[in-house]
Amino acid sequence: MKTNILLIGLIIVIVAFSGCVEPPFSCPTDAKVCPDDSTVGRDSTNNCEFHPCPEISSDYYSNLTIDILIPKEQYEVGESFSGEYAMVYDGTPFKGIVVYRESREGFEEHSFYFTRGLVKNIDFENGKTNFLKVALTAFNNNESFYEEGTYIYTMSVYDCPTVELESGKPCGEVTKDDILSITPLKSKSKSVVVSGGQSPSECKIDDDCPQLCEGCDDGKQICMFPAELCSDCFMDSMCIKGYKCIDYICVPE
Fold this sequence. Notes:
Immunoglobulin-like; two-stranded antiparallel ribbon; 5-stranded mixed beta sheet; 33% strand; 2 domains; alpha+beta
């Protein structure tokens, strides 16, 4: 009799405890994108925090080469100018920002461009991987200089993990001011000295350019600054449909 009572009691205890067993814990199925563009899920054993991203090797510091290629360091006003930004990388992929700055000594910075993307086997010579590249242009986006002075070109590369840590913002939301307050991963600057005074002026306002333009959006040329030259355009949107802007002229596509 006592044995039966003990068995019944044991069964009751087992049933009671088995009813308290919780099913396996389930976390949300979203994923986190890591700096190397891989993804990690959540850890059910760690309060559903994301699993850590793979460690990024420091080889992206040593495997990154950037340069600004300019044929010479001295030019005359009106002399043709050309140049190119160069970047080569072959290391652990990482998300980054590439910044291009163009300025003239003694003046406030004029041009600031930046692009974001995955830095992975980048070579600007390869058309398939030059999506982070911005064409090098003379100060004020012209193909020659119209005033003497010293012009400075700078190219900088930032890695998103550092940007996010120092700015407190996602890499895709940082502003120009955020970027300039952070030390870049690598940076390169080149200066060009231009002499010869100032080039002659064709115009001061658009009305000084009477020549009609068949492919121009407004039907006539504009005064392009700071060159003060009469031109059709300096971007494709200034030409009508079926035309594009080449060398400041609207030409049929």
